[in-house]
Amino acid sequence: MVADTARSILDEEERRGLAEIAGASDLASLEAAETSTLGRRSRFQEVQRSLGTMGPVERRGIGKRTNEVRDGLRSAIAERRALLETEREDALLRADAVDVTLPGRRPRPGSLHPLTIVEYEIVDIFTRMGYRVVEGPEVETEYYNFDALNIPPENPARRVSDSIYLDVPGRPDLLLRTETSAMQIRTMESQPPPVYVIAPGRVFRNEDVTAKNMPVFHQVEGLAVDEHITFADLKGTLESFYRALLGDRRVRFTPSFFPFVEPGLSAGALCFNCEGAGCPTCGFEGWFEMMGAGMVHPNVLRGVGYDPERYTGFAFGGGYDRLAMARFNIADIRMLWDGDVRFLERFEGAR
Ligand code: DAH
To answer: Hey, which of 98, 181, 237, 260 has its CA 20 to 30 A from 339?
Structure first.
């Protein structure tokens, strides 16, 4: 190779190399720039290899220039590498960075179900009055659910069309309890008087699902048996209960019949929705039916071995799904079962 060619190649490679190094945007392209400028198959190496074929004077001149170009390129590469490495580290740090000013992700606190809220309120009110909470089986026998409650065999509630019987061979008397009243009997059988209990829980009836009815719903039963208990005690107890639960809402008692009480009554509150005018919520009655109640029938007391000459008592029972609906303005009973978070969120912090 003649000296002039060598010199111009070196000039050109220096210019081209410096530009390629400066333009390398990451470590990989810098690596490629190094190979193409100084690598074994580069034009620079070609010049270096040809030094041996040159005369001593030219070799010295070109050799010096070769060293200059190589050192220049190497230090440009080293500088560029240092820069790209810090940039890469910065990018990694930035990607890893934690913004301590961002709000944290907290677990959702959840909420009590509206039915549970109402149930707890009822339990609170009665336990303050000295009542104890009892719970019983959801699969009952006809004896506890009907017979012991003075409900005769021909009562229509006992039909398969109204009640849900279990298909257990040899046990045609098993059914899902249709009322929590069965707990009156179980409680009295298990202890002597005095008795002051409430029994909240699920009950089951063979009904179609509608906006107001579910085959599964909830009732709370109450029972007080003691010496000298009168109808005035029943009225006073229910009035205190309703005042605690509903404030000064007007409540009415009307005569009614239930086989296990005598006399019996129905308790209703002035409708939450229409204030007595009549609307779908109260079935256009103006009053919202809440409970059945009455003085415990002597047959029931006798059946559990209590002496009806010495002890008297009252019982009451009613559903609270509709009470929850009225309280929280829930138009459709099915919302209580859907488990829709958007609905349940409304009750966060309600209790
Ligand atoms: N068990 C009745 C029902 O499901 C409600 C009831 C009425 C309960 C009168 C009582 C009562 O304790 O005395 O419709």
So the answer is: 181
Number of domains in the chain: 2
pLDDT tens digits, one per residue of 275-332:
889 887 788 889 988 899 999 999 999 999 999 999 999 999 999 998 888 788 888 8
Task: Identify the pLDDT of residue 171.
Answer: 96
Domain that holds residue 314: 114-347
Nearest CA to ligand 1 atom 12: 316
Q: Is the same domain home to 233 and 342? A: yes
Sequence-separated (6 or more) residues with CB below 8 Å from residue 229: 311, 312, 313, 314
pLDDT at 29 over 90: yes
Question: Which residues are near ligand 1 (CB < 6 Å)?
Answer: 179, 181, 221, 258, 261, 264, 292-294, 315-317
Residue 100 lies in a domain: no
**317 Cα nearest atom in ligand 1:** 8
Residues 259 and 194 in one domain: yes
Specify the pTM. 0.71
Which residue, 303, 301, 332, is CA-closest to 315?
301
Residue 103 inside a domain? The answer is: no
Phi, psi (deg, nearest 5) at residue 255: -60, 145
186 and 81 inside one domain:
no
pLDDT in tens, 150-176: 999 999 888 988 999 999 999 999 999
Q: Any idea which of 18-22, 129-133, 344-348 has the lowest mean pLDDT?
A: 344-348
Q: Which of 179, 213, 231 to mutate to test the pocket of ligand 1 (most atoms within 8 A of CB)?
A: 179
User: Over the chain, what is the mean pLDDT?
Assistant: 93
DSSP assignment of 180-212, as one string?
TTHHHHHHHHHSPSPEEEEEEEEEE------SS
